[in-house]
């Protein structure tokens, strides 16, 4: 998306040549790591769904959806690297790759946004949310996200307009940088989700910290706080710089910034931020790690100890013995309460 419309005094060739090397150094490892880690993430969260644990179903569906979007971005990277170096590529294929790239970016943003809202509601209104977090409804929300990003990607089809000598992900038409196209992308695609994520994350952390002295599951809640904090940090690091660079490039393309050196720096910042935002598909693995760790802490917290299992098994055996005595007529029902319990001996 660099500005290729060069004037006689201002050239962007040095910036573009530098970025060709940087992109290879960043995007090849991103592709390899992202492909491996997101496939493992999908497999890991699918295992929680197969075990049919209702407490983890909603989050698992969201996380699988996020991993699929990240995987889509990873798969578009090789085509992006090739097409961005060839002038006059087959336009429909170029448009398809650009479309998949931006769908994966904004699909990730919307999914993280819904994850933050879902987690906040589950923390703030646990009883109310328990009735609306059914797998079918969460799956429906994920489908809505896919519809939104596909519909929202329609401006991508006119990115190059009637530009004669275009390069994929470069030479965007003036219409692409018009206010009526740019501001909906910026506001609804980033600023609004970031505001929602920031509010929900801060409120969730505040609520959990306030419960520290009143909860018996502080280890589990501490894991939840780490998950929220990492999720917010990954979002900001991945998407704030690239959308700031979009805004600066908007100012350049609409004549608000005209100094050549400044335009070159903005072009470099834009391409660098887009390049490193791709690494989000690997950074999301930290979110997956903390979510899975939170699941495991919750499972271990609520798993009965060996002593509890022995005590429970002993009590079940005694109840069965009392029932059999009643059935044989050897005991008066009124005398059952007088039989001493041996559970305390076992626990001691």
UniProtKB/TrEMBL annotation:
- Which GO terms fall under biological process for this protein? phospholipase C-activating G protein-coupled receptor signaling pathway; positive regulation of Rho protein signal transduction
Question: What residue spans carry the region label Disordered?
Answer: 328-348
Keyword match Plastid:
no
Annotated InterPro entries: GPCR_Rhodpsn (IPR000276), GPCR_Rhodpsn_7TM (IPR017452)
Which GO cellular component does the record give, naming just one?
A: plasma membrane
Q: Which residues cross the membrane?
A: 22-41, 53-78, 90-117, 138-157, 181-202, 223-248, 268-291
Q: What is its main location?
A: membrane
Q: Which family does it belong to?
A: Belongs to the G-protein coupled receptor 1 family.
Q: What is this protein called?
A: G-protein coupled receptors family 1 profile domain-containing protein
Source organism per UniProt: Ovis ammon polii
């Amino acid at each position: 998306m660099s500005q290729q419309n060069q004037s006689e005094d201002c050239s962007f060739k040095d910036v573009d040549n530098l970025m060709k090397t940087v992109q290879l150094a960043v995007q090849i490892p991103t592709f390899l790591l992202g492909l491996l880690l997101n496939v493992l993430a999908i497999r890991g969260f699918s295992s929680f769904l197969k075990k049919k644990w209702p407490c983890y179903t909603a989050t698992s569906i969201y996380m699988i959806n996020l991993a699929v979007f990240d995987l889509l971005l990873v798969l578009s990277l090789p085509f992006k690297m090739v097409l961005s170096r060839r002038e006059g590529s087959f336009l429909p294929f170029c448009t398809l790759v650009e479309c998949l790239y931006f769908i994966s970016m904004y699909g990730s943003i919307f999914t993280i946004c819904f994850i933050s809202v879902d987690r906040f509601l589950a923390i703030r209104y646990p009883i109310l949310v328990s009735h609306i977090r059914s797998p079918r409804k969460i799956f429906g929300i994920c489908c809505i996200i896919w519809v939104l990003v596909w519909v929202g990607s329609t401006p991508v089809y006119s990115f190059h307009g009637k530009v004669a000598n275009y390069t994929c992900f470069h030479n965007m038409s003036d219409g692409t940088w018009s206010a009526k196209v740019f501001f909906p992308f910026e506001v609804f695609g980033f600023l609004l989700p970031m505001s929602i994520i920031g509010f929900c994350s801060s409120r969730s952390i505040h609520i959990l910290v306030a419960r520290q002295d009143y909860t018996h599951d502080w280890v589990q809640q501490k894991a939840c706080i780490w998950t929220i904090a990492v999720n917010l940090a990954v979002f900001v690091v991945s998407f704030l710089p690239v959308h700031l660079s979009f805004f600066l490039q908007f100012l350049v393309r609409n004549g608000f910034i005209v100094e050549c050196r400044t335009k070159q720096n903005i072009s470099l910042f834009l391409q660098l931020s887009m390049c490193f935002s791709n690494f989000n598909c690997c950074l999301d693995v930290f979110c997956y790690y903390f979510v899975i760790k939170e699941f495991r802490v919750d499972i271990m917290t609520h798993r009965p100890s060996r002593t509890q299992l022995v005590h429970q098994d002993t009590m079940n055996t005694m109840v069965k013995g009392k029932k059999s005595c009643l059935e044989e007529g050897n005991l008066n029902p009124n005398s059952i309460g007088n039989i001493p319990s041996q559970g305390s001996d076992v626990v001691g």
